Amino acid sequence: MAMENRFNINLNxxxxxxxxxxxxxxxAIATERLxxxxxxxxxxxxxxxxxxxxxxxxxxxxxxxxxGLLETRRGVGxxxxxxxxxxxxxxxxxxxxxxxxxxxxHFLAExxxxxxxxxxxxxxLSSQRTKGE
Length: 133
Prior knowledge:
By secondary structure, the chain is mostly helical. The chain has helices at 3-6, 17-30, 43-50, 54-66, 93-113, 118-132; strands at 39-40, 70-73, 77-80. A hairpin with a 3-residue loop joins β2 (70-73) and β3 (77-80). α2 (17-30) packs across α4 and α3 (43-50) crosses α4 (54-66).
């Protein structure tokens, strides 16, 4: 699968492009569409593929490297880093809470655009919890 097809970037979304790309890469790693040890495209190549500014891609790579999800090997490239279990990838409780809050805020906003109420969401989530038990 081409790398640009792994990341859903919507130029019409009010969310900043760097935030969309960061979230898309995090999601690809979490769902193992990007696997540990897999090489990402160069900053320049991903920028061209996604029609983004190279500085935007570089900012995301740097942020994800700081978060412990990616590693850059000088002269070789950027790779998905081996990591601890998913919840441990955010080293501090505050960062985990910030990420969860951002995820939930985005989820609620998207659901509202589609006409779902908070009760609709809670009912559905509750039914999913019941299925998993």
